[in-house]
Amino acid sequence: MAEGFQAPRGTLDWLPQRSAARRAMIERFRQIFEGAGYGEAMTPIFEDKALFARTAGESSEVVGKEMYLFEDQGGREMALRPEFTASIVRLYLENGLSRDPQPVRLWSAGNCYRFAAVQRGRYREFTQVNAEAIGSDDPAIDAELIALQLRWFESLGLDGLEVRLNTIGDRADREPYLDQLRAYIDAHSSEVDDEVRRQRDLNPLRAFDTKDPASAAIMADAPKITDAVSDEAAAHFAAVRSFLDARGVNYTLDPTLVRGLDYYSRTTWEISWPALGAQSGIGGGGRYDGLAELIGGAPTPGVGFACGIERVLLALEDQDRSPAPERQMDVFFAIFCDAARPRLHALMDQARARGVAAEADLAGRAVKGQMKQADRIGAALTVVCGDDEWARSVCVVRSMASGEQTEVSLDELVEHLHNAKMGTA
Ligand code: HAM
């Protein structure tokens, strides 16, 4: 392949089998969420850079290092969306959805872009399914979202998932706590690595994510946000847990769970499928009660999550599972008479219009090759038309399973195929 014509690094081509799996996964998500009152929302793939910078936060990896940025012909700074949440809250504010019954519940699916270090399960163009409930701080919603998300995974055949749950309190709880945390890191400055010292200034909560074992041991004893949250936030969290417990959802409380985006408040969670290794995070979310204000809206509570389709698909493929239904072809047209081709192709089209999945040889195959092709695509029936049949305006319809053959007049072929498909022939 000539240099320059490969797909860009960190992107994937979707061949038919995986595309079908992707579509089936999104379809399940749609069914589960629409069955719980969520409607589909679509937002642009590119938005003002400031929308993401203000919400996810300049200090987050996603904004600081991973955004795909470009200037449009009008000199505006745009970004390819790294996620949906900021766009969905913008959509809520811009379309006056606060006047609708609350909470407004929306699901979405589509491509997101992050200039990430590429590895298995970590791409630069990837697909998220996303759900948000905006306009209510009822803890029942946080639990419902986690339960629906787990239902989706389960419907795909993924079990053995780990759910980690935390509360990071409200913004007002955060500042005094961050002072405490910085003081702790300062007191252990010589025992932690550069990355922890860097995060101390940038976003001290992220210091808990350190990969260095010695630093991690120090951070394990650092003051935890969970102990510093207000009574109100603690009560909210207890309520979220009671809604989860009543459903029998298993989860682990993880006081060091801080998410990679700065807009979160109160509940945060992550779901992982440990067998995936380094990129085991197949979904994550949380509450973001202060986000709307960051982009000029009135204070509006919200909560949501997103899952990465490619990672979930890897997890399924590792278990030899595919959520895609087998491709089913009803009829193969094996035509051994050139003069018959135009009429039979026209009949094939008419059969397709009646809902029969049909294809014919398009590569000049001889008799043997065409019968082989009928087998290969798993056609239930084969329509055979050679010189003799053509001369008599008939064809032979052969059942591939039983070998049974029926002669059918070409005038009745479409009706015959339709009835065969409907099980009435
Ligand atoms: P996030 O944790 O950044 O959250 O991403 C959610 C999921 O997207 C991850 O768990 C992972 O499965 C997938 N993902 C993220 N980055 C990549 C990548 N480079 N390659 C492949 N998959 C990836 C959010 O995006 C939040 N907007 C979730 C949310 C919604 N919070 C509230 N509402």
Question: What descriptors fit this protein?
Answer:
single chain, 425 residues, alpha+beta, BirA Bifunctional Protein, domain 2, Rossmann fold, 2 domains, eight-stranded mixed β-sheet, five-stranded mixed β-sheet, 15 helices, 16 strands, binds histidyl-adenosine monophosphate
Subunit organisation of the chains: single chain
The SS-based structural class is alpha+beta
Beta percentage is: 15-25%
What Rg, in angstroms, do the CA atoms define?
Answer: 28 Å
Domain module count: 2
CATH class type of the largest domain: Alpha Beta
Strands of the widest sheet, in order across it, are: 1-5-6-11-10-9-7-8
Bound ligand species: histidyl-adenosine monophosphate
Into which percent range does the helicity of residues fall?
Answer: 25-40%
- State the CATH superfamily name of the largest domain: Bira Bifunctional Protein, Domain 2
Mean pLDDT: 94
| N→C terminal distance | 51 Å
What is the number of beta strands?
Answer: 16
Note the main sheet: 8 strands, mixed
In the CATH hierarchy, the third-tier topology of the largest domain is known as BirA Bifunctional Protein, domain 2
Poorly predicted segments: none
Structure report:
With 425 residues, the protein is α+β, with helices and mostly antiparallel strands. It folds into two domains: 16-170 and 229-318, 2-Layer Sandwich (BirA Bifunctional Protein, domain 2); 331-422, Anticodon-binding domain (Rossmann fold), CATH 3.40.50. The chain is built from 15 helices and 16 strands. The protein has helices at residues 16-34, 49-56, 61-64, 85-94, 139-155, 171-187, 194-202, 213-220, 231-247, 291-294, 309-318, 341-353, 367-376, 387-391, 413-422; strands spanning 39-40, 46-48, 69-71, 77-80, 104-113, 125-134, 162-167, 252-253, 265-272, 281-287, 302-308, 331-335, 358-360, 381-385, 394-399, 405-409. It has an eight-stranded mixed beta sheet, with helices on both faces. Helix 1 runs antiparallel to helix 5, helix 5 runs parallel beside helix 9 (231-247) and helix 12 packs parallel to helix 15. The chain is elongated, with a radius of gyration of 28 Å. The two termini are 51 Å apart. The mean pLDDT is 94. Histidyl-adenosine monophosphate binds at residues 83-85, 114, 116, 122-123, 126, 128, 130, 132, 260-261, 281-286, 288, 304-308, 310-311.
